[in-house]
What we know:
Helices cover 15% and strands 21% of the residues. It is of the alpha+beta class.
Amino acid sequence: GCVLIPSETAGPFPLDLTANTFYFRQDIRENTQGVPFRLRLRILGTQNCGAMENVRVNIWHCDANGVYSGYPNQNGGVNATGQTLNAYLFNELTLTTGLTGAYLPIGYNNVMFSTPRNMARFGLLMQAGGTWNGNVVMADTAYLHAMVTPSQALNPAYGYLWWLNGQSSYKLPGFQFDIPGPIMPNAPMDAFNAMGKNGQLINVSPSTGLVVVRVGDLPGGLFVPNLYNDSIWIHLNKVICDAQTGLAEVHEERQALPYPNPASDQVRWPLEPGNTVLGVTAIGMDGRRIPLSWNGELVELGGLTPGTYVLERRFGKGLIERARMNVVR
């Protein structure tokens, strides 16, 4: 009657003990004071459920300040960056994207307090591959790719601090079994999602050009509110504009897209030689059509309020090109 299922939970600071034999030790306090703690474990084998002898046990945890052994320069980022969390936020994100907020200590955690619009700015930054208005904010493209792809085989629906939709299965914290299918079946399959403390959500879908955020109290006491997030997409799918507003129609032969995206005042939309533009229109999420000024490849966005639009460019013989555009200020 004994059934054992081997499992593992991936953490933020895995330590390679093969390359760091120093960490084979009984006293794990390093230079901290520590408190007396006695831990007794019984290791069972998966073949016969019998007790195993002479088994190495790795104890992996952080101290009261959130610092893990074997990884120097943590301490809230002060040693690693030479700045506090809030200074780093201001210098790296506020000055580059306009994102504002503040980290405040809550218990053992540093919790960021901000607004839905600022959360959306971070989502737009991720959607644009770490660029903002044509400027590179996150230059490590290898990390950006790894962040939104499965980080390990244990849980393919988890990258680096982002939950990934469209995977064959997923595993939730506290449950040591795989759940078949995508983590949010009603959301775009390419969506990657920040599902953070107390149900604060950032959904990023590159294929649809959408960034969806949710701010509020913890929904239903769920640590990872994937079902709640999926229910949001059920409602969104009923109201997201369809081909009547041009959101689902894209000229298949068109390769060039307007850039930068997101943008604030002006974008360049590459134009094939010999094509004459007859008009450019911005289509809002509410279906409003707003005529735009243009000069060759340059399209003016200064009259648009911040938000997501579909840019429509009309040529002769009924040819129309459309592309999503995020306008920020």
